[in-house]
Amino acid sequence: MSDFRARGKRWAELTLGDLAWNVRERVLPGDHPHLPYIGMDNVEPQTMKLLGTVPSSTMKSASVHFKPGDVLYGRLRPYLNKVITADFDGLASAEFIPLTIASGIVPRLIQYRLNAADFVSYAAHLDDGDRPRVDYDQIGAFRFRVPPLPEQHRIVEAIESYFTRLDDAVATLERVQRNLKRYRASVLKAAVEGRLVPTEAELARAEGRDYEPASALLDRILSERRRRWQEAGGRGKYQEPVAPDTSSLPALPEGWCWASLPRLGELNRGKSKHRPRNDPRLLDGPYPFIQTGDVRKADGFIRSHEATYSEFGLAQSRLWPAGTLCITIAANIADPGILGFDACFPDSVVGFLQDDPLIARYVELFIRTAREKLDQYAPGTAQKNINLQVLAEVAVPLPPEAEQRRIVMEVDSQFSVATYCGNVAMAGESRCQRLRQSILKWAFEGKLADQDPNDEPASILLECIKAERAAAVAATTNGRVARKRQRTA
User: How far apart, in whole angstroms, are the C-alpha atoms of residue 72 and residue 66?
Assistant: First the structure.
């Protein structure tokens, strides 16, 4: 603090309410249909970026009429820190507090001050509850120091220079993330089309040996399933799983074959017989319960869960073994994940069970590539979903067993590199955000811009601001009284 006093002798301490006033009127959007409208969703959290506007004519609720140079501060959920400086005349949601900035204060300086971490923390602790809100009087009590006007301009210029470079860096890192997503998709596509690794047929010819085609692997799987059915005392005629319709499918690499999921393993929906589903007797027991969100968050493998089933819940469901491939058929369609533990799941998830973990993993990789095709079978409702039959008819391009193993190993290797690069990019984005806050902290400690002893002290500026504030408040009060009289006349 003593260091700041030594460098900031020409700064003045005051409250936000001393220089930023809430004097704008509430109006009806229908009275100003030509003006652009800013809603809470139009301002990006934390970044001070305006994402767009909508016509005021599309709005009905009372709004605030802001002017160029006003700072709009989102009072709902202040931890989101939605704040921008307007450069046009318009209307905004009543969830914004429009701050009219005094002459001699640079509006964007106030915007950056409200974006700094110490103010965000201050505002976030003013109200509790599910939908916390703050009002003008609460934030107006925030105290901070203001530099002379010339230094304000230098500070804003320095902040924006640094922020421009940080924005460029973040844009590059975001582009890296998008490219990595496309890269992963291209790896998976190549994997299930026989283009990622040499095919078993190519290697066999080069090495002068025979190989087992995928059709032989499929015959062995089907024979084993029939044997188990017979040993379990199956009655009646054995129903062979139906093969997929391949009439319109492309040719496969040599040694591959088409197979449906029911021909490769057991395919069934999770069970959830009991209604209602929120019956407290179902939950809080020893059995992990997987929901669609747990599958969606999985990166190939489901390693955690948020809920558990009781003995009562298990009786309504089924305990699937570790290694089961879970596939969502509701909400986000065809999100796959392999269970890392025994678990139950609802009928919005389908379980694919195969004794060979290699086949289950290969099918998991394939399902990721089939999402877009499966999505077209979902009706256009609020929550998309498909049924078990749609999934059962999906044709899986099956490579020979040895080739599956090489495919899975190569996908894991390339995904490992992509994950590392993605983590580096995310860490870089986090560092950029921390650096933004460091820049703001330095700025308001007087460390970011040069100080000039010839600048007029901010204390002199504040005397003018006090008189201006008194006049603005009086004018607003008189105007409101006059309008009230008109309404009651």
Answer: 8
| Among the ranges given (19-28, 37-46, 235-244), the one the predictor scored with the smallest mean pLDDT | 235-244
Q: What are all long-range contacts of 368-373, with beta carbons under 8 Å and residues at least 24 apart?
A: 368/188, 368/334, 368/336, 369/185, 369/188, 369/189, 369/192, 370/334, 370/394, 371/333, 371/334, 371/335
Q: Are strands 336-339 and 300-302 parallel, antiparallel or unpaired?
A: parallel
| Burial of residue 53 (number of CB atoms within 10 Å: 0-12, 13-18, 19+) | middle
Partnered with residue 35 across adjacent β-strands are none
Least Cα distance to 350 among 274, 364, 147, 158 occurs for 364
DSSP string, 429-455: HHHHHHHHHHHHHHHTTT-SS---TTS
CB 328 within 8 A of CB 335: yes
Q: Which amino acid makes up residue 16?
A: L
Distance from CA of residue 342 to its chain's centroid?
29
257-310 pLDDT, tens digit each? 999 999 999 999 887 665 666 788 888 999 999 988 899 888 889 999 989 999
Short-list 472, 448, 404, 372, CA closest to 259: 404
**Within 83-135, where are the H helices?**
107-115, 117-124
Residue 207: count of CB within 10 angstroms of its CB: 9
Question: Which stretch of DSSP H or E encloses residue 409?
Answer: helix 401-443
* Residue 258 CB neighbours (<10 A): 18
- How many residues are present in the chain? 489
| Neighbouring-strand partners of residue 384 | none
Instruction: Compute the radius of gyration of the chain from its Cα atoms.
Output: 32
Structure tokens at 417: 């590199």
CA distance 448 to 285: 57
Q: What's the one-letter identity of residue 367?
A: I
Question: What's the predicted TM-score (pTM) here?
Answer: 0.81
